[in-house]
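Example 9 (inverse folding). The structure is encoded as follows.
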């Protein structure tokens, strides 16, 4: 059997590019394993499920070598587990030399291992460079006084007005959330940061009541 493994680092990222590459290689959607979470460890459910499915002479297809791990040691360990312990093959679409189905003799294996170690090192170095550039960029932005945090979502109705009406029992929480167009967790977080005394909000309440 030939399986495809896809990983994107968060639920906000799109896996379409990897899915298209897998389909072009001939892997159907029912044989794809997709994880949408950080690769900081390998407690990823779909990856673990794929490992449990693999049998000797099966094939794992990945788009690039860094889908196997986030550093040099992890990539080599996952490669070893799949190819040596399980006895399955690996195909890396972005690097034709990393296809363990080819060159099963000693020379072919040696070449594959050398390329793997080199690319794993390059992948880790690039990630470290990206993190360093991000750190330097953040420090430079802070030095310029740039705000880096997330700004509160603008709501169509003043938050204090709706929150005070909710506090007085004039509207239920569901109506408050509808008027503000925010989630319940966001409502309670913002509620902790505002003053809702009668004196502070009286005028606002009767001038702006939705």
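The amino acid assigned to each position is listed next.
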């Amino acid at each position: 059997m030939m399986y495809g493994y896809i990983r994107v680092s968060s639920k906000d990222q799109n896996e379409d590019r990897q899915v298209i590459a897998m389909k072009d290689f001939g892997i159907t959607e029912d044989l794809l394993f997709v994880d949408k979470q950080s690769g900081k460890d390998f407690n990823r459910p779909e990856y673990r499920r794929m490992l449990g499915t693999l049998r000797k002479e099966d094939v794992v297809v990945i788009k690039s070598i860094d889908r196997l791990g986030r550093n040099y040691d992890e990539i080599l360990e996952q490669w070893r587990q799949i190819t040596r312990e399980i006895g399955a093959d690996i195909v890396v679409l972005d690097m034709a030399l990393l296809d363990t189905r080819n060159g099963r003799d000693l020379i072919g294996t040696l070449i594959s291992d050398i390329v793997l170690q080199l690319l794993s090192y390059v992948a880790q170095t690039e990630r470290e460079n990206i993190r360093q550039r991000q750190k330097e960029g953040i420090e430079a932005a802070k030095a310029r006084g740039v705000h880096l945090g997330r700004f509160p979502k603008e709501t169509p109705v003043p938050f204090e007005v709706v929150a005070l009406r909710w506090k007085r029992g004039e509207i239920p929480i569901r109506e408050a959330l509808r008027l503000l167009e925010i989630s319940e967790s966001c409502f309670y977080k913002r509620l902790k940061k505002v003053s809702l005394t009668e004196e502070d909000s009286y005028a606002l309440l009767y001038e702006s009541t939705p």
